[in-house]
Design goal:
5 helices, 25% helix, eleven-stranded mixed sheet, 268 residues, 11 strands, alpha/beta, Rossmann fold
Amino acid sequence: MKPKAEFGVFGGSGFYRFAKKSRGVTVGTPYGKPSAGVTLSEIEGKRIAFIPRHGLHHEFPPHMVPYRANVFAFKKLGVTRVIAPNAVGSLKAEVAPGDLVFCDQFVNFTTGRKDTYYDGPETTHVSTASPYCPEMRKVAAEAAETLGLKYHRMGTVVVIQGPRFSTKSESRFFSRQGWDVINMTQYPEAALAREQEMCFLNISLVTDYDAGLEGDPTVKPVSHGEVIQVFNRNIENLRKLIVEIVRHVPENRSCECGSALEHARLSV
């Protein structure tokens, strides 16, 4: 029987396995191999596909993650909804380490990444005006409320190229734009899922204050080790949140994510 899944979960830094009871499947794509083998598990009859976006041993830095292969592997399995947790730095004092942000917008500062499935000959312009699924964000906020987690219903993530962290000047610039958090992997992942007409939910777990927030004497420049420590302390809450989201997402989609290609193609 061909493997199938309704939900796809991308594991971020420190999040390399999702469920103890799972089975691995190999999914080939025209865009190469995914970051790791796909594992399938089940939550109350709903099937979940999981890929650690950085690989099982964190061997793919942000600018080298095979984003197109990862998203396409989910598509081949029949996934219609993607849950994408990731570690982020905060650009605002009120967005504290340990908080969750369900982003509704991204700003892209990456360069050179393969960020579309449509290189021609059929010209396709997919709208990313609303790149994150509003239906899934609502469910996620309700789930976080139920679990007693501190969260922000919306926010803008600025995505930088990496693998280096920002300078203080860069960080201050991002903060002055009013953006909320900073990350290295949300682009092109969210845009690619949009091209495949999948609902996409970002769960940003704040692990640190970014380098530009230096008005507070307790704020120190970020290190990768500290990011992983905070992520690991919150990993169980993250798993519980994902389970709660999967349980309560409506069976039928009422959002517009599934029709993203409807008016995207240029006909001559």
